[in-house]
Amino acid sequence: MIKNFIRLISPNKSLYEFNEIMDALEGKRFFSMDTIQNIIIRLRDLFPDEISKIDRTKYKKWIEKNASIWKERIDSYQMEKLIYGIAKS
């Protein structure tokens, strides 16, 4: 679940937004994009025990390991979708 969220994020922002996602999942803040916040609310309701057991360090290492690969794989069409999606929110 967390990895799928992270893959939706622009590789340039993945570590920062991972922390924002985690804080929102833990109920410490609201996520900056309403559509994602709505999903987070549903996930908190459905998986409270699983969310409380998430190891942030494990996922941060996974992000750091894969960020450069993700940046290389983004083509111009995907970048436009990312930028448009971020601007639209």
Radius of gyration: 13 Å
Mean pLDDT: 77
Residues in helices, as a percent range: over 70%
Order of helices and strands: HHHHHH
Number of discrete domains: 1
Strand content range: under 5%
Category from helices, strands and their pairing: mainly alpha
Summed up, the helix count is 6
- Biggest pleated-sheet summary: none
SSE layout and pairings?
Blueprint: H1 2-8, H2 14-25, H3 34-46, H4 48-52, H5 56-73, H6 76-88
Helix pairs in contact: 2-5
Kindly describe this structure.
This protein has 6 helices and no strands. Helix content is 76%, strand content 0%. It has one domain (2-88). The longest helix has 18 residues, at 56-73. 12% of the residues are buried. With 89 residues, the protein is mainly α.
Give a short synopsis of this structure.
This protein has helices at residues 2-8, 14-25, 34-46, 48-52, 56-73, 76-88.
